[in-house]
User: What shape does this take?
Amino acid sequence: MLLQRQLRTYTQAMHAGQFGGCDGSEWPAATIVIAISADPYHRAAVAYGREVSVLMAERFVERELVPITPHATFHRRADLEWIVTLTSDGPDLDEFITASRIRLGSHLIDIDGQTTFLDLCMGVAVAEQIPDASSTEYLIRCADAALCFALIRQHHVVIADEQTMPTVHTQVDVANRLARSAESDFLIYYQPIVELAGMDTVGFEALLRWRSGTDILTPAAFLLAAQVTSLIVPIGHHAVAEAVRALAREVTPAVGQDGFVAVNLSGQQLWADDIVGHIDGLLRSHDVAPRRLWVEVREDEVIRLGTAAAQAIQELHEIGCTMCVDDLGAGYSALRYLRDLPIDVVKIDRSLVSGLVDNPADRAVVKAICEISRAYGMIPLAEGVETEETLAELAGLGFDMGQGYLFGKPESAEVQFRH
Assistant: This one.
């Protein structure tokens, strides 16, 4: 009962404007705006209930943020969202920016003697860092855009810059064009994978391309928009279907019955309920041995054990697919997870391979990954092989396979298999 009474007291105070709130119809001139989202992943709401999570957020604003920024104005626009406006000549600007970078993130809040956990995400827009910021309203949009990126990237704080708003507009435009695209607009290019011992092409990686107007775009231009909108799932289903079809019709005549095609699956694709059945059905309908389909999963997806994605990896292995960790070394340290998942192939990221000749540290890391992979019974494959010097180093380290421009660039099926 005490908790509920306190909840009503704080809620009434916030809506009455006790902490500087207003109805949002008029915004004072400001040179810095902070958009705040409390409990953005709903962990506190799940653990303690929605009302308690709201109370936690209010306590945090009252006890932590207001004392830091006594000259700021707080505008509450939802139970768990605030807009904070300040001016550059305010004495608390630096303190708030420092706090936003260092202190504001995950917090322990005391509620009636019980310590509870609260997440916080923030987007910060500073006028002097954004040349086009001509009004407080525009700064608010920039702060919201930065908050959007904070939520997507799961960062506590993102600071807007002059590219933040254009990036959002570009992503929205890309997402709209993706949604209007036909299946035939998504193409598969194939890049050779070579066995280093005999320099024979033994398989291909299937790489997604998007035909937008007269342009052929790589995933760097559209993958984030596809993932954020979940369009990556139907696009990915189409890409896998095209790759399996090519495996049956073009790859086998080109490199033989043991030739393979590697396809990339994102985390969202692995979470899709029908992904294993979809792939199993494709392999059966084209009479392709499952081992000839390499399923590549990025290193940052591998580290999330105990998830539906990890279960999909296990089930794809069980139906016979060759499982591959892609870009190992690009971001996380997932080596110990290789022991716990059914991984057959380890692809070493090009960022490490490119430094193999001139960087002793990179060479040591690549050598260690190669040795660990072999110890686990996995095939080490080097990405980004572009020079004869790099090839010689890889051969000396005992790599089985390589992929890169030295062996061939990604090409459409018509070009890659025309011979």
Remarks:
- Residues 153 and 290 are 34 Å apart (CA to CA).
- The two ends are 79 Å apart (CA to CA).
- The first strand starts at residue 32 and ends at 38.
